[in-house]
Amino acid sequence: MDEQIEKYFKYTSPDEALERILKNSRLSPRVIDVSVHESLGYVLAEDIVSTIPIPIDNIAHFDGYAVRSSDTLKASTINPLRLKVVGRIDSIREHNLDIKDGETVYVVTGAKIPKNADAVIPVERVRLLGEYIEILEPVKRGEHVTFRGADIDGGEIIQKKGDIVRPQTIKYLLDTGRYRVKVYDKPRVALIGIGDELTSNIEEANGKKLETSSIMVSYYVKEFGGVPIRFEAVPDSPSQIIKTVKNSLRENDICVTIGGVSLGVRDLCWTTLSKLPESMPIARGLKVQPGRATSVVLIDGKPVIMLPGHIQSTISGTINILVPLISCMQGLPIKDLFPRVRAEIVEDLTVREYISFTRIRFVKLAKNRDGFIAKPILGDSSMIGPLISCNGFIKIPEKIEKISRGSKLDVYLLSWSELLYLFSKYNEWTGPS
Amino acid sequence: MDEQIEKYFKYTSPDEALERILKNSRLSPRVIDVSVHESLGYVLAEDIVSTIPIPIDNIAHFDGYAVRSSDTLKASTINPLRLKVVGRIDSIREHNLDIKDGETVYVVTGAKIPKNADAVIPVERVRLLGEYIEILEPVKRGEHVTFRGADIDGGEIIQKKGDIVRPQTIKYLLDTGRYRVKVYDKPRVALIGIGDELTSNIEEANGKKLETSSIMVSYYVKEFGGVPIRFEAVPDSPSQIIKTVKNSLRENDICVTIGGVSLGVRDLCWTTLSKLPESMPIARGLKVQPGRATSVVLIDGKPVIMLPGHIQSTISGTINILVPLISCMQGLPIKDLFPRVRAEIVEDLTVREYISFTRIRFVKLAKNRDGFIAKPILGDSSMIGPLISCNGFIKIPEKIEKISRGSKLDVYLLSWSELLYLFSKYNEWTGPS
To answer: Which of A221, A236, A391, B188 could hold A228 in an S-S bridge, CB 3.0 to 4.6 Å?
Structure first.
């Protein structure tokens, strides 16, 4: 009977579970050195400081003639100014050219302009007369010239530790001769489907069910910045569960099991994994519904997240525990990680059950004249239909029993592909006001 | 002199240029058959119709005892109901079990319940007495049972042609035995940096500049759903430009050149490519600033987009022409493709130049109590600094000369990684109201 009681849920809030994991685990951002070419989307683990001014010289912004602006003060259509072309800088190269009174030098875009020059007149604005050009208007100092350091000064912090690498960051790094950069490694997440009825082998699907939950979760892991490592499905066998989980932790940061974590006779994940000598129980059940069977232990200091197998519960555990941990490992914030839009709910929604829990409900978004509207898509936690129809979820805080039609609330999108999906449907993005 | 004039810009609006390309090119979405495992983020080229009801049987939602709800009407703590356990369904399998008056069968989660049963009582809510269970309360019809077709009915359209594939769509397809799906192919985009001063080879960078613009653009191509194919940098040589561009079009859908498209002596892209017999000029210059040198021809019916080389102009051409074409090829809308947020501008912004053009200005976002605020980051189009500081851009429509401090406007984010960047900084997403 003790055995029996030990299996029951003692629900913990997701925030508390996360706090316990972070306090007791060996989980922390890991700094690695990657090729700049591969750094898109990674989080910087170092400040990027500009080592050289950009541009390094005063350079021409257009193909044209480099002049001293002071020479041109009186130029006009009535009084055209002639300047002698004393040189050509046809390519971007180092040189020591100079100009004097009444002289000009042809320069191409991006080339260093001669000493003493401080402006460039684009080719299309001059008349070419043999060795001379004719200018019909004054030119201002700095016109079509970018002075040394005007773009980025030496010694500036360009990007901070914690910033996400974007395409333009990559160009900047390569342009300044930096080919490697320190970033936080993407956490490796092992995914293991659990259940006698499952197989990972399409050929073998005869009689068995293809294990697809770990496939679905692998995409969420990827979209939020982790590296998913899928394992073959494991039957409801304590020894095999232990073996595979421990094996998976050897080379991965987080282990996720899916299925076998509720209270039935075949639900062996918690009873098996929480009793290992190297195991530290973190949460047996979460105060979220669906997903309340989600349980967590640390094994040798690494989190093992046991997700329930019903699809809506699997996703709830993913949202509430797995995604925040993936963010944390990358040096990102762990709260409010989902893109969201503000929407008006179009039906009364009554949620009396699990009143001390956060309740997750999936909603379908549409638009009317005033903005997004959200329609709850109900159905029990095993149903995939609501997830296919929906665009995101709402969180109903503890103690709230009813959300009235017409209320405005935040709808969280499940993933970045979900945002793209929504965006492509409504051809515009409107978020919370 | 004709030569000279032919080179000059005749600006076309981006919308008109796109219309001409779509009308005259061979560009259209291409349907391919991919493994469902690889379909995330692709756009469906077929409706997904449910072929079988889900679930296919009436199934148990929890491990427990399958009963006929009508048997339990009078059960109470005072009057416990005993039912005889006449069978066990320990695994998810086909069977023909039946129950009669006063009988029950143990079932595991996901298993088909016996004929005549219409509810399941979870294990933790019964007392086990040898071959019998004792029930202390009535059970409602359908409790903890998912009836055949209750999740998804046969014959329903689950996802429409044009929908983006999400993680849950993949699970659905695999669960129903579909391992391949028709999607629109990702367009292949050739990228060619042009300029005597450039090299694609880090080793050779001595004296030459590493060609990095095509690297930056390759990430935008990727983020918006294209497949970037980078070519080695090409010098300012008509024959080499023609050779590489034509070569690149053999296996790719769109060719993008970067640099060499303005009016200088080394700007050979337009003069060279627009004169080929197989070339159809589309636009010599765009009514956008920066980016006004962006030019387009069709060669053998395929678009060649000539982007200017100054970084802000490169990005403007990418935003205005390339990204819409990548979207179009995938069967997605071609307008308003960028995620955006509503923000209050915190400085007067005066933009008198190119008054008949759309002007793009880059802005940095921050937050105050009321939401996002946008600060314009000015600097000429060759500067990368503003792009590193900024989070997105605003569009200033033709004829507008001034945007006053305090105005609310849409800020478009440059890419999905930019959205993640913003999101990680402000830990929340607020969009246009």
So the answer is: A221
